[in-house]
Specification:
This protein folds into three domains: 2-116, no CATH class; 122-157 and 359-483, Efflux pump adaptor protein, beta barrel domain (Elongation Factor Tu (Ef-tu), domain 3, Beta Barrel), CATH 2.40.30.170; 171-316, Orthogonal Bundle (Helix Hairpins), CATH 1.10.287. Helix 5 (170-251) runs antiparallel to helix 6. The relative contact order is 0.14. It is of the alpha+beta class and 485 residues long. 55% of the residues lie in helices and 16% in strands.
Amino acid sequence: MKSTTQKSRKAGNDLLPDDSTVPVTEEAHDAQFHANMQLAYLESVIKDWHQHQIIEQPQEKDSPAPPSGPATEQTAPKTRAALRLPGNLEISTIVKSCVALAVALSLGWVPIQRLLATTSAEATVNARVITLRAPIEGDITMANTAADIGTRFENGQEILAIRNPRSDASHLTGLRRERDQLRTTLAALEEKKQLLVSSLDELTAQQERFRIGRVEQLEQRVREVEADIAAAEARHSVAAEALNRAMQLRQTDTVSAAALEKATGDERVARQTIQALTERRKGMLVELDAARRGTYIGDSYNDTPQSAQRKMEVALELADVRARLQGTKDQLETVATEISQEEKRYSALSIAVLRAPVNGRVWEMQTAPGEHVNAGQDLLKLLDCGSAIVTASVSESAYQKLAIGQRATFRPRDSAKELEGWIVGLNGLAAVESNSAIQQSALSREPYHVTLKFPELSRGTDCQIGRSGLVKFDTSRHVDLANIP
């Protein structure tokens, strides 16, 4: 009996997996991952078995006693042996059953769990891959010569530069030459303007001096006429007295008639002379008033002095220079704007600096320092660590229970912490090609594919791409599409 028990125990131990011979598979990892759940389940099974044994023992005590007699006494040892034998086999059977049950649960827990709960067959952390292409043709210069696959870059950090020494700069050269010519013309016009302004000021002063002199001259002539008028009035007074005496003497026949006529003619001439000088004085006053206002009235066709005429010519020339000067300035500003735009265009065609658009690391390096690249050529691929998602494959039955926005949890294999998130994409049987680092077609354990968002994965600075785990879907709650993040 002892040997039988040892053989049964050995047979039971043979059912246990040996870590040295059994290869490490994904099912073994899943069994270890859910060790706590398996132990709890085994404890519940053993507890149920104990309760069942307690119930069966009173029934055996209440069974009827066997009949007495010689036959009974002869068969009693066999009955006791038969009763003891199942008792001995019961312990070994229980041990082997428990061991077999543990092994079965270890190997079959994941399929059983998938049948009982809505989980993923496989799930892996994924993220977008951003491809940087060459905007221009040129030679590559790396900002960090040690940059390689896995190198981290911050958002806005310079990664590489492309320089094209053969870019066309003829238009920019022509614009700069035109700008230099305009600057030379502008300087010449400025000097001419200053000279004309100086000449105009001098002619203005000369014209003013001429006006003052002309006014003084006319005033002097007016005074001269006034003196002539006074002299003529004196001669008229003498002629009038002589005429009176001649008229009186004629009445007494003291003088002849000829003397009276001569006295009469002298008086008339003196009176006309006064009148002529008076009218002449009026004309001079008119000329004087005009000269004081800057208008010159003379007996010739030239009513403007030469200084005033020259001043008008200089003023017209100065106005022309000022107009040309303003036009040159406007043209210079236009050319300067064109030069600025052309410099930007030339800089964009000759030098292109590529910076990291996101926080991430180099996923694939497709170029090297000093390499000549063409416009549009792929240079490198960056892994966007801020857009981490989880790509999972599920069975058809699990897929039919899912909806966009449904909550889920993700537990990585190397961590006991569960991450909370939600479903953002249901692709079904279509393995959609995208710019993700890991394509959905790589998840081939189940045909249906689901994409999930877990904010905790995007907050870290380290990209956890490729790390696998288990996704559990919460199908008990109703999905409110209006509140989907």
